[in-house]
Design a protein that fits this description.
about 220 residues; about 40% helix; NADH Oxidase; two-stranded antiparallel ribbon; 4-stranded antiparallel β-sheet; alpha+beta
Amino acid sequence: MKQTMIPYALERLAPAAMQQRADTFYELMNRRRTVRQFAPDPIPEGVLERAILTAGTAPSGAHKQPWHFCVVKDAVIKHQIREAAEHEERINYSGRFPDDWLEDLEIFGTDHVKAYLDIAPALIVVFKENYRLVDGDRKKNYYVNESVGIASGMLIAALHNAGLATLTHTPNPMAFLNEILDRPKNEVPILLMPVGYPAEDACVPDIHRKSLQEIMTIF
């Protein structure tokens, strides 16, 4: 059955207003940094929900919206996740990671200890839905990785816009998250993201982003 179409209009801004919005948003996002030191202060009610709703506006293959976001605030569950993540990361750092990967990580001083998983007031676990189950039947999703990747980027931007810091933690393999959070087998965790305010003594690496000339080509 063909989808019903409805009218759509987007406000056409004056060129100066467009440039101002583009500049303001870039300046905001250019201040975003990955944080590993969090304050335990709680996040105001409703902020995470709105950020996740924003992520849910992302485009997706055939509009199947193949994502699910688990928000973990419970201290016991957060600690279970920390213990499982540190178990995998201990193996990663002691032999599973190739030497060149370890060398690239060395400048950031990271290791298998992930205290922020206990300290951050919330963890958001992003799951990709590889396929749907409809009345017990398996149904296809399309461009799942691309769709969930876009949604995750929009989530990070929405959280930063709300004044929160994030860390994109990927303690591969992450199947332990299905077990701890009781998620179905058609979902695969792709991102474990602590969210909160930076600690007062938080520090980030003195790194620099690529220039426009390095990341853009106009034809």
